[in-house]
Structure formats: C-alpha cells, structure tokens
C-alpha cells in the first residue's frame, strides 16, 4: 500500500516530543441549563484508541469539543499533547489543533467547496492554490476512503455515508497524531458502517494514531476491539492468536455526567453493573 | 425565570459590544500576523468592489442629478444659479458620495457576509474550521474588512465623479448652464479639507460594513431563522452606525480643518 505519510514508527516527533498521554481530562465540569459533565477524568495514552459510549445527550460530542478547546469547561483541566488547552488563549490554540484531526458528527464539510478543496483545506488554506503535489495527496487520501471519483463534486451531491468518509479523508490528510471521531457510523447501514470501521482500524494499525471514538453502535465497537488490519491482505481480519496481539483499544462509558466504566472489551462484557448489562443487551 | 429582566438584557448588550470590539480589534491586528490570506482578500475585493459598482454608479448619478435639480430652484431665487456646480460638488464629495455608497454597500455586503458566515456558523463549519487550526477571524473576517475598506475608498471616488456628472447633465441639459462654468465652480469649491473628509469617511464605513456583517454572522444561533435574523440586524446596525459615525467624523474633521 502506498502510504500517506511515514508510519508511526518512522514519524518524526514534532515540536512536542514524545508525550505519553495525548489527552488528559481532570475533573472536567460543564453545564448548560443543566449539568452535562460533572467531574470527568480520564487519560488517552499515546497509540491507544478509546471508544466512548453513552446514550444520546450524555455529552459525548461535548467532550470531544472540549478536547479541541472549541468550548471552555466550567471547571477542571484538559491537557492535550502536553499543553493545557483550557488555559490557552484562543489564538494560541490553533497551532495545537493542527496536530489533531476531527470528524464531526454531521461531517461539517464546507458546502461551498468541492470535495477536493475540502480534503485539501489544511494544505491550501493559506495560498488558496491547488498544486500538483497537493492534488496527489488529496487523491491518495480519497483513495484511502475509496472515493477518488468524487473529487470534483460538492458535498451536497454526496450521500451521508460518502460525506462521512470525505470527512475522514479530510481529518487524516495531514496524518495528525490524534484523531477524534464523533459517531462516524451513526445512522448508516451495516455495510457502509463496516467500511468506515475498517478505515479507522487501518488508521489505528497502519499509522498508530491515537484516537477517541464516539459510537452508539456496539457492534462497531466490538469489531474494533477484535479485529486488526492486515496489510498483506489489505483488509481487516479478526484476531485469531488468542489475544496475544494488543489492539490498544479500550472502552469508556459515560452516564449522567460521569465516566462509569473504563476498561477493555473483556472487562466490559464481564461487568456486573446493571446499567452496563442493560446497555449491552 | 422571569420573561423580561432588564439586568439580563443590559448584560447581554454590554457583552455584545465587548465581543464586537474584540472581533473588530482582532480583524485589524491580524494584518500584522501570519498567515495572511491574500487570495481570500482579492476574492472579497472582487465581490465587494466590482459587484457593487452598478448600484454605486446608479445611486451616485441620480443623487448628483437630483441635487442639481433641488438646489437650482433655491439658487434661482437668489439669482445665483451659477453656483450649482459648487453645491453639487461639495455635497457629493463631503457627504452624499461616501454615505450613500456606504449605505448601498452595507445593504448589499453586510447582509451577504452575515448570511454567509451565519450559515457556516449554524452548520458547524466555523467549528470545523477552528478544529482544523484555521482562525476564522484571520481567514474570514480580516480579508473582508481589508477588502471593504479599500473598495469603499474607490467606490466613493467613483460615486463622486458620477454624481458630479449627473449634476452636470441636469445643469447643462435642463437648466442651460455653461458647461465650463459648472466644472470650474465644482472644482474650485473643493478645499483640501473637503477632499480629505471625503476620502477618510469611506475607509471608516468600509470597516463598519465588514466588521458588523462578520460579527452578526459569527454570533448567529438558532438555525436558519437565526441566520435570517442576523442578516437583518447586520444591515440595520451597519446603516445606523454609518450615519452616526458620519456625524462624529464630520464634527471632528470640521474641528481640525476649522470650518
Ligand atoms: N451549545 C449548546 N447549548 C446548550 N446545550 C447544549 C449545547 N451543546 C450541548 N448541549 C447539551 O449538552 C448535552 C450533551 O450534548 P451532546 O451533543 O454532547 O450529546 P451526545 O452525547 O453527543 O449525544 P448524541 O449521541 O445524540 O450525539 C445535551 O443535553 C445538550 O442539550
Ligand atoms: Mg453527539
């Protein structure tokens, strides 16, 4: 497979040298009319994927937006790539955000730009020019999500699932150290969902990207926790070596403003918590 | 919760003014910081400058014409019809050229900016932009502010010229004035202070148009209805601010140039 950027092992450390914890929440609180998050603490170690689950309206999207510093929490500290984003000025946050990719729940593509300009946005935002090199990189990112044929289309001309994949291509084009996926498979059919999960697994296993992934589809979550991307076959395959291979995938469960569960898929299945049992059934 | 709370409303207003001032300040200080979005500025200059040309020419022409028509009837009573050129030129250059251009462009572009940025806001595109490490105040606001300031300067000059031509058409064709006399009085009437005032105002108005349009757009909330509200508010606020600031700029410059 031709790669977008050197794999994780070869990637040069950027200005923040190896920070072991890419995202750290410490007693984060946030309320609108009612409290939404009430003392959320967790860590995302480098190279790990955390799957965030919880019923509708528990604040999953909010948590991702807080991690990017798009909103300011009422209390608590959020540290991203070693820098405390909650204490930074908005002007200073932009440089940090460039190292993070985000796939919004509703894709949030620029509707007056073509798919190509959307995906190339980060690369050409200053010059506004699409060079041959950028074009090649866009095609590569779109090939990754199997949407090369849509380069000249506008987001309105795509289906919901296609838009989601364009959003993923836009997030991965610069190969950020961390990617936040907000319900990347929400409201999609099982086949398309599987394609998207395979992409995310590929990103995890080929590039070693750390990520925080929100999903309400248990099936997707367990697929991620039990499959790895085989580069030789160029597809996602189930883990068969009896759990020797570490997929670096953990689960987080959010309920009533608190993290009520943190652990592996096996821990989750073994949990005795009645709420979790009900969620899983 | 009370439906009407004066303190809440006052607090909201103060906060809005504060937010606006911050945005307006940032839009100017961004000029000195990288990255500079030159391509976006050119695009905006084209949309504001070239796009507004027809309405500016039309309003300028007819304003000049109606000025000549109105003043001539008064001047005739004093037997000084020959001063028509002077009156048209002073009114156009000092007041009507910049103000009318400002109001026309406010109607056209403040609303356009508010609705464009407002739609981006309510569809999370602004958040997406921020998430990608692009500062909306640099990428969206500063190019619009710069382009408006520069373009309004030139549009006002065009408006003045076209207005003088409109006045001339009336004086020559309808009132039968000597063409030479019209242009000579029009030209000689203008002192440095008049021209300075006429060129200074549009730059301010351009700043108001773009910063108000962008502010209302970026603070839009509440879906498509919110975008509609932001658009109307932007035009109203920009127009009112243009007229109010026009008074103060005029007063200030009159003081400086000792009228
Ligand atoms: N800008 C906002 N203003 C007011 N309330 C908000 C805002 N954003 C989020 N909320 C509230 O915060 C809560 C959490 O919202 P959030 O979007 O994070 O939910 P979610 O967990 O992502 O749900 P879903 O699974 O449906 O996407 C909701 O109750 C919502 O009403
Ligand atoms: Mg959500």
Q: Work out the largest interface and the residue count of each chain.
A: A-B, 25 and 19 residues
Q: Largest beta sheet of chain A, briefly?
A: 6 strands, mixed
Instruction: Give the end-to-end Cα distance of chain A, rounded to a whole number of Å.
Output: 39 Å
Overall mean pLDDT of chain B: 91
> Could you tell me the number of beta strands of chain B?
0
Helix/strand class of chain B: mainly alpha
CATH topology of the domain at 21-99 and 176-280 in chain A: Rossmann fold
Q: How would you describe the shape of chain B?
A: elongated
Q: Largest beta sheet of chain A: what is the strand line-up?
A: 6-7-8-3-11-12
Q: Percentage of helical residues of chain B? A: over 70%
Sequence stretches where pLDDT stays below 50 over 5 or more residues of chain B: none
Number of domains of chain B: 1
Notes on the structure:
The complex is a heterodimer of chains A (281) and B (259). By secondary structure, chain A is of the alpha/beta class. Chain A is 32% helix and 25% strand. A six-stranded mixed beta sheet of chain A has the order 6-7-8-3-11-12, sandwiched between helices. In chain A, helix 5 (132-144) packs across helix 6 (160-172). The longest helix of chain B is centred in the N-terminal third of the chain and has 40 residues, at 38-77. With 259 residues, chain B is mainly alpha-helical. Chain B has one domain. The relative contact order of chain B is 0.17. The termini of chain B are far apart. The chains are: A alpha/beta (281), B mainly alpha (259). Adenosine-5'-triphosphate is lined by residues 32, 36, 54, 56-62, 105, 183, 216 of chain A.
């Amino acid at each position: 497979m031709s790669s977008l950027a050197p794999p994780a092992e070869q990637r040069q450390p950027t200005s923040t040298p190896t920070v072991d914890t890419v995202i750290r929440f410490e007693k984060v609180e946030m309320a609108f009319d009612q409290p939404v998050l009430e003392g959320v603490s967790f860590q995302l170690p480098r190279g790990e994927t955390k799957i965030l689950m919880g019923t509708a309206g528990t604040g999953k999207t909010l948590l991702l937006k807080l991690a990017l510093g798009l909103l300011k929490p009422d209390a608590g500290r959020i540290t991203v790539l070693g820098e405390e984003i909650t204490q930074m000025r908005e002007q200073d946050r932009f440089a940090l955000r460039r190292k993070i990719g985000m796939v919004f729940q509703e894709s949030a593509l620029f509707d007056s730009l073509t798919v190509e300009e959307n995906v190339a946005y980060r690369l050409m935002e200053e010059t506004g020019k699409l060079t041959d090199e950028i074009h090649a990189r866009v095609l590569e990112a779109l090939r990754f999500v199997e949407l090369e044929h849509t380069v000249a289309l506008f987001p309105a001309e795509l289906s919901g699932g296609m838009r989601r994949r364009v959003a993923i291509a836009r997030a991965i084009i610069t190969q950020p150290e961390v990617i936040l996926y907000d319900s990347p498979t929400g409201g999609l059919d099982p086949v398309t969902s599987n394609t998207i999960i395979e992409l995310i697994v590929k990103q995890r296993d080929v590039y070693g990207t750390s990520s925080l992934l929100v999903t309400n589809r248990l099936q997707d979550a367990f697929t991620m926790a039990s499959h790895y991307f085989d580069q030789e076959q160029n597809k996602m395959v189930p883990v068969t070596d009896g759990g020797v291979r570490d997929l670096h995938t953990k689960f987080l469960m959010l309920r009533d403003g608190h993290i009520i569960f943190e652990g592996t898929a096996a821990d989750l299945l073994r949990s005795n918590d009645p709420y979790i049992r009900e969620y899983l059934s | 919760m009370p439906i009407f709370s004066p303190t809440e409303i006052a607090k909201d207003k103060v906060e809005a003014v504060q937010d606006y001032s911050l945005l307006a300040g940032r839009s100017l200080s961004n000029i000195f910081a990288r990255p500079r979005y030159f391509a976006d500025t050119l695009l905006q200059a084209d949309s504001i400058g070239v796009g507004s040309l027809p309405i500016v020419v039309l309003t300028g022409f007819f304003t000049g014409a109606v000025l000549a028509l109105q003043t001539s009837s008064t001047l005739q009573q004093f037997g000084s019809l020959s001063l028509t050129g002077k009156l048209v030129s002073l009114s156009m250059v000092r007041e009507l050229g910049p103000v009318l251009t400002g109001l026309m462009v406010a109607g056209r572009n403040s609303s356009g900016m508010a609705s464009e940025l407002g739609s981006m806001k309510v569809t999370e595109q602004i958040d997406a932009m921020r998430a990608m490490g692009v500062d909306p105040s640099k990428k969206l606001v500063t190019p619009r502010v710069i382009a408006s300031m520069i373009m309004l300067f030139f549009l006002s000059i065009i408006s003045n010229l076209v207005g003088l031509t409109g006045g001339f058409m009336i004086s020559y064709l309808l009132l039968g004035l000597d063409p030479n006399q019209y242009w000579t009085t029009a030209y000689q009437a203008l002192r440095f202070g008049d021209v300075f005032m006429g060129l200074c105002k549009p730059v301010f108005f351009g700043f108001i148009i773009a910063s108000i349009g962008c502010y209302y757009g970026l603070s839009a909330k509440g879906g498509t209805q919110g975008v509609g509200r932001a658009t109307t508010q932007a035009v109203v606020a920009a127009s009112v601010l243009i007229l109010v600031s026009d008074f103060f700029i005029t007063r200030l410059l009159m003081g400086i140039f000792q009228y």
